[in-house]
């Protein structure tokens, strides 16, 4: 299980609520990986690692089922070009006057220099990169 990696960007609001749980699972994972496997079959030494991985996945699934996290938005984040998508309304063409994406989806390099863009739906200032 990969370590909880954080980018240089500050974490989102509410991160402090879930961080201790993820850190605890990460610590348990490190302990399971360094645990001695003396006297155990090869497959038995991996069982604790799979259990911890399963716990972490259950936490993620719980957040999705309880609608703490937006499953559809996260699914879009996994697609190329949508990694920083701010909300789903910005890619729905039916919500715009000309049947296109929201203005915040236009790359900053394609806009007039110095022009400030702000989404009318969510206030995003450019989530396309």
Report on the structure:
It is a single chain. The protein has 129 residues and is mainly α. It folds into two domains: 15-69; 81-129, no CATH class. It has helices at 15-34, 42-65, 71-77. The longest helix is centred in the middle third of the chain and has 24 residues, at 42-65. The radius of gyration is 21 Å and the shape is elongated. The model has no long low-confidence stretch (mean pLDDT 81).
What is the H/E string?
HHH
Radius of gyration over C-alpha positions, nearest whole angstrom:
21 Å
Largest sheet entry: none
Average pLDDT, to the nearest integer?
81
Backbone shape: elongated
Poorly predicted segments? none
> Proportion of β residues?
under 5%
Query: Whole-Å distance between the termini?
Result: 29 Å
Please, how many domains? 2
Q: List the quaternary state of the chains.
A: single chain
Helix and strand composition category:
mainly alpha
List the SSEs and their pairings:
Layout: H1 15-34, H2 42-65, H3 71-77
Helix pairs in contact: 1-2
Q: Brief description of this entry?
A:
With 129 residues, the protein is mostly helical. It has helices at residues 15-34, 42-65, 71-77. The chain is elongated.
């Amino acid at each position: 299980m990969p370590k909880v990696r954080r980018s240089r960007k500050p974490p989102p609001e509410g991160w402090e609520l879930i961080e201790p749980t993820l850190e605890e699972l990460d610590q348990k994972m490190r302990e399971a990986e360094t645990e001695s496997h003396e006297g155990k079959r090869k497959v038995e030494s991996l069982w604790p690692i799979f259990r911890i991985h399963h716990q972490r996945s259950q936490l993620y699934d719980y957040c999705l089922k309880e609608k703490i996290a937006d499953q559809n938005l996260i699914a879009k984040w996994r697609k190329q070009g949508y990694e920083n998508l701010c909300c789903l309304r910005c890619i729905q063409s039916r919500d715009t006057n000309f049947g296109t994406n929201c203005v915040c989806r236009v790359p900053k390099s394609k806009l007039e220099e110095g022009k400030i863009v702000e989404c009318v739906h969510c206030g995003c200032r450019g989530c396309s990169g």
